Amino acid sequence: MADNSVSWRIFALTLWEPWYMMYLTLTLLPSTVRDIIHHGETNKPLDWSAFKNAWFAAVWAIFGPMFAEGGSSVVGPLMAKAKGVVLDIGPGAGDWVHLFKAEKEGKTGITKIYGVEPNTALHARLREKVKVAGLEDVYEIVAIGAQDLGTSGLSIERESIDTVVTVQSICSVSQPKVLVKELYEYLKPGGTWIMWEHVRTHETGWIRWYQALVNLFWPHFFHGCSLTRSTDEMIMHVGDWEHVEMNMPGGQNRYMPCPGMLGVFTKRSA
Ligand SMILES: C[S@@+](CC[C@H](N)C(=O)[O-])C[C@H]1O[C@@H](n2cnc3c(N)ncnc32)[C@H](O)[C@@H]1O
After folding, report:
1. For 29-63, what is each residue's pLDDT tens digit?
2. Ligand 1 in contact with 91 (CB < 6 A)?
3. Is the CB of 119 inside a 6 Å radius of any atom of ligand 1?
4. pLDDT by residue (tens digit) across 118-152?
5. Burial status of residue 17 (CB atoms within 10 A of its CB: 0-12, 13-18, 19 or more)
6. The pTM is what?
7. pLDDT at 102
8. Which end of the chain is less congested by CB atoms within 10 angstroms, N or C?
9. What's the rounded mean pLDDT across residues 224-253?
10. Which residues pair with 197 in a beta bridge?
11. Matching CATH number, 8-267, of 3.60.110.10, 2.60.40.3410, 3.40.50.1000, 3.40.50.150
12. Distance CA 19, CA 36 (A)
């Protein structure tokens, strides 16, 4: 549950935080441009999409490990439920992949993980994290958007996936409702969807308006990430779940523009 009683200092810091984060991403622009000029082929016209990917990769080198460090204790036990064939949607730079490791060494057995990450500027770090986690034999990085899984030549059938993992990724996809439905269809009956996503605030009144105000700017700094997506409700209502565990971990307060929700959803067995 979100904490309703916070000091004035925490209240002010909470509201200020997203603006500070956007400021920090701005400070990374000059070095991103410099890197592209130094390492890119300067005789080519500027590739806007490659530029945005490189900027986000620089941004996520700061925020990715920070969020993962803060969230691992609550997300770890959930990811420990992953088994069989896993779709890891938008793993970014792989800051959470070590959480798969314990499970692989345990008994329940992950047999394959598809890390579906379209931003190739993050792949080198993702590959390194996969190696450090000792997952090289099971983890395959797939350089596509999850919406293209059906046409990627990977021959992933509908109802063939044991576990779908979305950690801070549905916030960034362009057609969330369509994708959530598709991912549900990839899950086997009895399969599990593990979710850790920031969502549209459950508060009403001015906090909701404040989140919407921040969101006018936020996606431009964080590669399309939206703060006002009700991903929790989208997944909850996408199909027939036999079992649902959803909760907002402690340590969050009601003024947060990025409130996080945890969820484990089990698809009804046939
Ligand atoms: C906010 S980042 C989070 C990265 C990582 N999950 C983490 O928490 O560190 C969102 C990620 O989703 C990825 N993404 C965006 N659109 C996607 C899509 N259509 N399919 C799969 N991943 C996508 C982005 O490239 C990015 O790496």
Report:
1. 999 988 888 876 556 657 888 899 999 999 999 99
2. yes
3. yes
4. 999 999 999 999 999 999 999 999 999 999 999 88
5. middle
6. 0.94
7. 57
8. C
9. 96
10. 261
11. 3.40.50.150
12. 26
- 141: phi then psi, degrees, rounded to nearest 5: -85, 130
The contacts of residue 210 (CB under 8 Å, 6+ apart) are 15, 255, 257
pLDDT tens per residue across span 161-210? 999 999 999 999 999 999 999 999 999 999 999 999 999 999 999 999 99
For range 246-254, the mean pLDDT: 91
Which pLDDT belongs to residue 108?
58
AA identity, residue 179? L
- Domain locations in the chain as residue ranges: 8-267
The alpha-carbon radius of gyration of the chain (Å, integer) is 19
Position 146 scores a pLDDT of 97
| Inter-residue contact 226 to 219 (CB < 8 Å) | yes
Tokens 């996520």 — which residue?
60
Q: Hey, which of 116, 142, 169, 177 would you mutate to test ligand 1's pocket, going by the most ligand atoms within 8 Å of its Cβ?
A: 169
CA distance 160 to 29: 42
What's the DSSP call for residue 3? B
| Ligand 1, atom 27: closest residue by C-alpha | 92
Whole-number percent of the chain with pLDDT over 70: 93
Distance CA 225, CA 214 (A): 12
Structure-token pair, residue 106: 């345990």
Nearest CA to ligand 1 atom 25: 119
